[in-house]
Amino acid sequence: NANAKDVENQNYSSITFEGDVKVNDLDVKYDVYPVTVDKLDMKVNPKSMDATLNMMTVGNSDFSGNIKVENPLAFISENSKATSKIDIKTRTLDAEQLMGYSEAATTAPEADTTATDISSFPDLNMQLTYSADRVKYEKYDIKNLSSNLEYDEDDLDIVSSTVTVEGDKLNMKGSFDDV
Fold first, then answer.
1. Higher pLDDT, 1 or 137
2. What would the 3-class secondary structure string for the chain be?
3. Confidence label for 108 from pLDDT (cuts 50, 70 and 90)
4. Residue 148 CB neighbours (<10 A)
5. How far apart are CA 93 and CA 131, in angstroms?
6. 31, pLDDT greater than 50
7. Of 41, 42, 50, whose CA–CA distance to 70 is shortest?
8. pLDDT of residue 158
9. How many Å apart are CA 21 and CA 165, to the nearest integer?
10. What confidence category does residue 49 fall into, taking pLDDT thresholds of 50, 70 and 90?
């Protein structure tokens, strides 16, 4: 129950909805590899969306973690800003397969050269913490990837990122403007 002005003005007391989404044992065939969700719990209301992903596999990669979005209605409003905090952990990330280079893929996905118009998305502030125990990419021995990223209004900051490649630990910090 709400109107457009209530959404734009973040007048949450006039907006009424609340719910829980629970997903268990979901199997989907996507492109050339399967996607499975063991368990996903989500709570949604006008002020926030909280999701806990207990385990999801995409091909040979696995993911678990938490996602919190403050002001999720910003995604349908032009004058609002959403803030999100994402914490994802992976035991194995098969980057080759996800990028379409895996021998396990029967056909590589065609390159999509269509530009994405992100101007329809709200101003977004995002904090992302990502870690992977092992990354499969070509013949490299990649382990212990840990990254903290922040995105705010077209700027991406790599607050910290560490990874061990072929036994050598690499550290990275930096920023990208107009992403």
1. 137
2. CCCHHHHHCCCHHHCCCCEEEEEEEEEEEECCEEEEEEEEEEEECCCEEEEEEEEEEECCEEEEEEEEEECHHHHHCCCCEEEEEEEEEEEEEEHHHHCCCCCCCCCCCCCCCCCCCHHHCCEEEEEEEEEEEEEEECCEEEEEEEEEEEEECCEEEEEEEEEEECCEEEEEEEEECCC
3. very low
4. 17
5. 10
6. yes
7. 50
8. 95
9. 39
10. very high
Residue 14's nearest CA partner among 36, 46, 60, 57 is 46
Distances in Å between the Cα of 119 and the Cα atoms of 55, 86, 115, 154, 176 are 32, 22, 12, 10, 18
* Whole-angstrom distance, CA of residue 163 vs CA of residue 161: 7
Do the beta carbons of residue 89 and residue 66 sit within 8 Å? no
Dihedral, CA of residue 167, residue 98, residue 115 and residue 151, to nearest 10: -50
Residues with Cβ within 8 Å of 105's Cβ and at least 6 positions away in sequence, in order, are 32, 33, 97
Give, in degrees to the nearest 5, the angle at Cα 59 between 135 and 130.
Answer: 40
Unique residue bearing structure tokens 């995409």? 58
Tell me the C-alpha distance between 105 and 127, whole Å: 32
* Calpha distance 80→73 (Å, rounded): 8
> 146 and 104 in contact (C-beta within 8 Å)?
no
Q: Name the one residue in this structure whose structure tokens are 């996607």.
A: 35
